[in-house]
Specification:
By secondary structure, the protein is of the alpha/beta class. It has 2 domains: about 15-140 and about 290-310, 3-Layer(aba) Sandwich (Rossmann fold), CATH 3.40.50; about 140-285, Rossmann fold (3-Layer(aba) Sandwich). The chain has helices at about 20-35, 60-70, 95-100, 115-120, 140-155, 170-185, 210-220, 240-245, 250-255, 275-280, 285-310, and strands spanning about 50-55, 75-80, 105-110, 130-135, 160-165, 185-190, 205-210, 220-225, 260-265. The strands form 2 sheets. The protein has a 5-stranded parallel sheet, sandwiched between helices. Strands 2-1-3-4 form a 4-stranded parallel sheet. Strand 5, helix 6 (about 170-185) and strand 6 (about 185-190) form a beta-alpha-beta unit. The longest helix has 23 residues, at about 285-310. The structure holds phosphoric acid mono(formamide)ester (CP). Phosphoric acid mono(formamide)ester binds near residues 60 and 139.
Length: about 300
Amino acid sequence: MSEQQLSTKHILGIKYLTRKDIELIFETAQSFKEVINRPIKKVPSLRDVTVANLFFENSTRTKLSFELAEKRLSADVVNFSASSSSTKKGETLLDTVNNILSMKVDMVVMRHPAPGAAYFLSKHIDASIINAGDGTHEHPTQALLDAFSMIEQVGTLKDKKIVIIGDILHSRVALSNIFCLKKLGAKVMVCGPPTLIPKYISDLGVEVSYDVKAALEWCDIANVLRIQLERQDIKYIPSLREYALYYGINRDLLDSIDKEIVIMHPGPINRGVELSSDVADSDQSIILQQVENGVAVRMAALYLLAASRN
Ligand code: CP
C-alpha cells in the first residue's frame, strides 16, 4: 500500500481534493479491489479505529457500502439512524455528534439533508469526517467511485466526453461528478429539461444540452441521474411520463445512435423514467460494477484518512 498521504484530514467534497488526492484514492482502491475479491476479504488496517456512520437521510447503497468497507478494514463500527434517534426529541446535530464522539469515535461518515452539514461539523469536532451526501451539495465518494468505474471502462479520462443527464438542479452527484471529472481532464456536458439545469452551471466549465439524443451522440459515457421528486417543492416537470418521453433513455434511443456508449446510474433508479429496464440491465450498463467499486473506493478513503491522522 502507498506511503503517500491525502492533503486533507476530511473528505467533505471533491472541491477540496487535489487531482493527486483523487489519483492516490484510485491507486489505493485498486489494491483493495484485489483484496475484496480474495477468499479472505478482510485486512487489519483499521484495527482499533472506531467509525460512526451517521445517517440523517435515507440510504441503501452508501450506508451498506461504507459499513462493509469499514468491516473489511477491521474497524469497529457503530451505526446511527436519525429516524430512530433522539434527534426526534429535538437534540441538535452538534449535540448528537458530540455525544457519539465522547464514546471515543475516531471517524465519522455522515449523510445529512442540509448542504454544508459535514463542513459545519468539521469546524467543531476533532474526528475525521467523510461526507456521504449533504443535501443537494456534494456526494464525494459517489463521484470517486463513478470516475474509478469510468477509468476501468475507457482508460484515462483526459479528453473523454461524459454527459450527466437528468435532474442536475437537485443532484449532489452531479456537482461532485463535475468537480471530479474536470480535475481528471474530462470534457463534461450536462443535459436535461431547462427547469432542472441550474442557470449558471456553464461557469463550472461544462457544456449544456437540452437534447438527449444529441448529448448521447456526443458522449463516450452517459451518467444518468434520478429525478429527485422528494426535493422538488414545486413542479419542475409536467409529469414523470412526459420526462420519460423526452429525456428517458430506452433501447430504441440507444439503437438510433451509431456508437456503443457506457451507461451509468448512481442509484436508486426510477425504472421506466430516466432509464428503461432493457437499458439498465443491458451489457452497456455498468450500474452494478459501480456498486462493487464503491466498497473498494470507500475502503481507500477510510484507510487514507486514518493514515493522515497518525
Ligand atoms: N447512490 C446513492 O447515494 O444511493 P443511496 O441513496 O441508496 O445511498
